[in-house]
Specification:
The chain is built from nine helices and 13 strands. By secondary structure, it is an alpha+beta fold. It folds into two domains: 31-106, no CATH class; 110-248, D-amino Acid Aminotransferase, Chain A, domain 1. A hairpin with a 2-residue loop joins strand 7 and strand 8. This is YheC/YheD family protein. InterPro entries: YheC/D. It comes from Paenibacillus nasutitermitis.
Amino acid sequence: MQSRRTCVSSKLRKTRIVMRDRKLASHVPATRLFSRSQLAVMLKRYGMVYVKPDTGSLGIGVMRVEKTAGAYRYQAGTRICVLRTFAELYDSIRRQAGSRTYLVQKGIHVLRHMGRPFDFRIMIQKGPSGNWKPTGAAGRVAHPRKAVTNGSQGGSIYPVDALIVPLASKKASSRLLKEMYRMAKLTADRFNQTYPAMNELGLDIAVDRRLKPWLLEVNTRPDPCPFTKLPDKTMINTIVAYGKAYGRRYCLTCSKSRKGASPKRLI
């Protein structure tokens, strides 16, 4: 059944939409409703997970949780808690979550720049002809004291090549970008079947140490702020032009995210 909605807030609902596509499903980390039993099972299976609100944005409320030798550890913002037992861990996280619905997601050991985790924001938009087109790709490096990469949390924004080329090669970077764009197109096609009124999506894609991309989250009202921090303004100009065509206006005053160092200093 099709809907005229242009925004979906539930991360779990969006994950389930993506999981309907067989090609995308292998790129989606296991995601479950947060509960005591699911936290225990997934920590045992994966060693590290992320616990995050089912609704919300900007990286607010996201916790990185891991099982270490003889203890448990989780990070929320810049605060790090070490607890001796699983019961203490669960009770502490439950207090942090309050009455909100939370999810637990398999943790991906992502690539790092200067010891800081990074991922990518991919923008895809619907053109006047009704076809979806990827219009932007930007790397997001986490704040030195945080586990989340969001620019609103003090993350730094880089061109894709500036982060991938030093770790792999120019060819690998090009191949990875093509794969992320392919994932964005498949995601847009899948969402379009249920929500044909949607005009834009922002994908958060992480890359593991084997250079496999993982689709962490789909944003149905994406913030274009990361693209304002790139040296080349082509992407943000394209995003704004596409948005204008379907009636979207963006606030481009982006004070919390930072512009990453010059690529010349990274390679």
